[in-house]
Amino acid sequence: MRAAITSVAGYLPDDVLSNADLEKMVDTNDEWIRSRTGIEERRILKDPTKATSDMGAEAVKTLLEKRGIDATEIDLVIVATVTADMHFPSTANLIAHKVGAVNSWGFDLSAACSGFIFALTTGAKFIESGQYKKVVIVGADKMSSIIDYTDRTTCILFGDGAAAVLLEPTESHGIIDHKLHVDGNGANFLRQKAGGSLFPPTHETVENKDHVIWQDGQPVFKAAVKGMADVSYDIMQRNNLAPDDVAWLVPHQANLRIIDATQRRMGLPKEKVMINIQKYGNTTAATIPLCLRDWESQLKAGDNIILAAFGGGFTWGAVYLQWAYDTH
Ligand code: COA
Prior knowledge:
Blueprint: E1 2-11, E2 16-18, H1 19-23, H2 30-37, E3 41-43, H3 52-67, E4 76-80, H4 91-99, E5 105-109, H5 115-128, E6 135-142, H6 152-155, E7 160-170, E8 174-182, E9 190-192, H7 203-207, E10 213-215, H8 217-238, E11 248-251, H9 256-266, H10 277-280, H11 287-295, E12 304-311, E13 315-322
Parallel strand pairs: 4-5, 4-6, 11-12
Antiparallel strand pairs: 1-7, 2-3, 6-7, 8-13, 9-10, 12-13
Helix pairs in contact: 3-4, 8-9
The structure holds coenzyme A.
């Protein structure tokens, strides 16, 4: 038995933060941002009373509506995020509560930009075991809550958003293979310094702006190009997939140049790559399911799809799946 994605939905906040807006906030310009990253605008959740779980809950509500099932049927909710509403309870708890998934349990999974593929792989195991029939995987991040909007090297990159998929058992198609990696040495190049048990919040950590994303961009870029391209190529090789066999690459949307390098290594034409980074920027755990949502109407049952990601940690990997349904 395999696990298949049987529905996909997303939620993006209405407020747009364009490159022109950022030009007024930091010393940057539209041309630099477009040419170095591919990003034109991103969405920001401005309502201070709303958090990651609110975006995730909206995505899950739409997901269930589309599939025509009730929240009480959900067995498990896994939420990939690095911007949990609180350290505890988990964002999965809060989302399950908000959508009325009263028969479900759940947990958060922390793998930064690879969070969605790590969570998808984990959720698939509960379906493959035969134990569960309906598992919801959410990728959601309110990145604006951990960005320093005076730091031009990071504030241009990220946006807010959420998306979710439903996993159900299937005899054919579905998730076939995964190859996932972690390397804790990556903490030296990309991290949120304070707020955890190592450096709990103090006046000093707040004054030093240690609660926001800190990144040494170039080493992260180099590791991302190599990691995402290699793992995507490897998963094609070990599943005997030639470029012609692959219908779509669904890459994490961190930087257009990282996506281009992965596409070239896989030998795919540009038309087979889902790219929406120009509209949403890097929404961390939400990028891959947001692509699936945006391209859903073009996907056909049996399409060979490679999901690929690289993120903080470092974390990286690829998932090979066959799409399970035609959109009506
Ligand atoms: N606007 C204008 N100039 C900027 C800028 C901005 N927003 N940000 C940085 N610069 C400047 C730098 O200060 C530097 O100036 P200098 O040469 O005078 O020192 C110059 O642009 C080049 O900076 P550099 O860091 O070498 O640029 P880059 O080509 O590596 O691009 C990133 C920077 C962040 C876009 C790139 O490193 C990247 O995408 N890294 C990976 C990010 C990522 O994916 N993170 C999430 C995990 S998946």
